[in-house]
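Sample intake sheet
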Amino acid sequence: MSPSALLCATILLASNTGVAKLDKTRVSRACSAAETMVREGNRYGVDPYVIAALAYKESRWNPTKKGGSGECGVTQVLPRYAYGNTCLELQVPNTSVAVTAKKLSPAHACGRRGIARCKWEVKVKVSKRCNPLLRALACYNAGTAGLRNSPTPKGIRGRKYSKSVYRLYKKLRRLANQ
């Protein structure tokens, strides 16, 4: 089975088992973007299951959803951070997924800062274990405030968001490995 077919089957299984509550239309949208999630995930070094979990958390795979701050598409990207894509272009799931993969990559600011922050925390013994993916997801949601152990609402929201996406990612991975 191809990686994109396995990802699609996992999303369908998640929907059927109640891990992710999606109707047939949204499962279809997720499956149509599965190949892009795999391709762009491989290109940027991001697990496609992370992208799938993030898209579920952000919009439940609704490409026309718009956030309160102007976020667009299935992964709710702000157009000013979308590498020249407009809100209309971000409503195409494949475009939104490609932008998100790039933003979560270790070479992008959030991924790079997440890795650097973890190295710093381990070095100065703030934490014994640090997860760069959690840091990158917090940065994706709340900007650099999500990277710090900031008591600000934005920092707290970013950390809660990252844990929520990470839990769903782990559930999807477990389903895929069954």
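Comment: The two ends are 14 Å apart (CA to CA). Residues 109-172 form one domain.
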